Amino acid sequence: MRTLTIMILLTNAIMLSGCWGEKENSEAQKEGSMVSPDKEGHYVFPLTGEKTKVEPNQRATAVVINNHPKARPHTGLVQADLVYEVMVEGNMTRFLAIYQSKQPEKVGPVRSARDYFIDLANGYDSLFIAHGYSPDAKEMLQSGAIDQINGIQYDGTIFQRDPSRVAPHNSYMMFDEMTETAKDKGYDLQTAPDSLNFMKRAEVKELAGPKAENVQIRYSNQAAFQVEYKYDPKQQSYERWTGGEKELDRESQEPVLADNIFIIEAGHRVVDSEGRLDIDLSSGGSAYLIQHGIVQQVDWSNVNGRIIPFKKGAMVDFIPGNTWIQVIPASKGLNQIVEFAK
């Protein structure tokens, strides 16, 4: 296991690590499940921890979203409950956006699948959406590894091309059309994923630790893939910036926000002449969890396909809201990759 080294300006954090077993992880995950309303008749969305009067029984949908500069600004990222940002070939990143509490009219631009996106989507029992696939991902999809709909088969129907952009940066998935096709294919759309663990609002106010008001992540020497999160104390969320520009939804112009930022290290290995990657999302490692303007040094573990924070062997709760999980190469886990500044 390599150590993710992160420079924190004005303060240093102490490395903490822990051990845990499969039984403890499984039991901890079950504790987060929300299946009954509270005394006031509220349910809880399983992937955001936010209250709702309607039983949140819809299935999660995981969509691979293009992050090439020609694919920006994006559509629908603001409605995602959870987003993974993961490297692909060419020193670029791509998103896996998971929707459960909200379903935008359309999402995109949608891009091709990789095997590790399928594994991550399976962790939430998601319906998997992509447009295209790598050879390994194609084999997984054709073997029935996950319920899925792909733009290769539905280009021009569920997936609409935007004429103002060039392929492959112009494919948008229409949620209503996708849902109808999923029903026709006999997919279950009414089973919600198990809940993540969330703090109570009072616990959020008690968070303490080193300040993290500005988070900078350098995925690449290319400025276009340098990510920054800026904490807004009024909104009590982080605004996301990429390549020096504030990220806004293409349709609504709403800012892309994050309530939980979870930065993890993972082994990356090039596996073919195209530069495609094998990413170790099973072995665990060091990580940082940033919430409410505070950073904690934690570990991560793969719990039934989900990337979950732990500290001293105990699961760490998320705060209610959405979550961005940033997967960084362990070999580049130096202070040149991630920096916290006041």
User: For the record, what is the CATH homologous superfamily label of the largest domain?
Assistant: YerB-like
In what order do the strands lie side by side in the largest sheet?
9-8-4-6-5-24-17-20-21-22-23
How far do the termini sit from each other?
29 Å
Shape: globular
Largest sheet: 11 strands, mixed
Integer count of domains: 2
Give start-end ranges of low-pLDDT stretches. Answer: 1-34
Helix and strand composition category: mainly beta
Could you tell me the mean pLDDT? 88
Range of helix content? 10-25%
In the CATH hierarchy, what is the architecture of the largest domain at level 2?
3-Layer(bba) Sandwich
Radius of gyration: 19 Å
Number of strands: 25
- At the fold tier of CATH, the topology name of the largest domain is YerB-like fold
Brief description of this entry?
The protein is mainly β and 342 residues long.
What does this protein structure show overall?
It is a single chain. The protein has six helices and 25 strands. The chain has an eleven-stranded mixed β-sheet with strand order 9-8-4-6-5-24-17-20-21-22-23, with helices on both faces. It folds into two domains: 7-46 and 197-341, YerB-like fold, CATH 3.50.90.10; 61-184, YerB-like (YerB-like fold), CATH 3.50.90. The longest helix is centred in the N-terminal third of the chain and has 10 residues, at 22-31. It is mainly β and 342 residues long. The chain is globular and about 50 Å long. A hairpin with a 2-residue loop joins β14 and β15 (245-246). Residues 47-187, 215-325 form the DUF3048 domain.
